[in-house]
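pinning this so it doesn't scroll away 📌
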Amino acid sequence: MFTKQYERGRTFVAKLDYQSDLLEELNKICCEKYINAGYIQVIGAVSSLKYGFYDQNTKEYIYNTYAYDESLEIVSCSGNVSVKDGKPFCHVHIVASDKKGKCVGGHLAAGTSVFAAEVVIQEILGEDLIRELDETTKLTLWK
């Protein structure tokens, strides 16, 4: 088990620009504000959604199959901030629904286009959360 203690740091709120890339904007905020540990919440809507699924058997992310070029409401979008390859990295999952309420979701990918998004990023203070390759899962996990 992995356990570390942190305290609350700064809290940032943002309204993302129309048609901006959701994941790119989250990473941009964390890089600009030097956030190396934290958590993220997003509400709003997207005009297109790209997400992935980690195949535990092949130990690979699958992205190309999971794309929706339609209006979707963000039902849940949360994640964390840590350090990967020496810079802030946002690991975010998203669930979104269509006009009939059908939900889809997974690992948020670049290429998701914002219709409207309000973001809260809570920094946590303590040692940086560093990601390293975990040999068992082949994921980059906290060390």
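📌 and the second one:
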Amino acid sequence: MMEKFVCRSEAETIEAARSFAESLSPGDVVALKGDLGAGKTAFTKGVADFFQIDGDVSSPTFTVVNEYNGTLDIFHFDAYRLENVDIDNCDWLDDYFFGDGICIIEWAQNIEAVLPKGYYEVVIRKNPREGENCREITIEKTER
């Protein structure tokens, strides 16, 4: 089943993510895909808000992962700078992917080869024809 949202502001992107977060459970992996500035971090903020994460939610560009504690823990990855990640050098990810929290991965296409089966693929596209802040978001649970 695919969900679609059209958001015309960052606040609407956050609200769409809050709505989506209602369906998440421990162990879920959310793969965020989209161009620079598409709204991946804003989407993460919405999920974090749903799970009552206190504090600043920001992209972990240089640390690779930020851990947030709330009603459900969130592990927020930024895979933008990760290269050559394959099944032989990703053991460190297993504790996150198969743990009791939710993994949210920005630039997930960079580590797609190691994502576990059944992850949620969230694609965020800018739609400048509809406005500078317009985003089209599609969410689909994968079988791969």
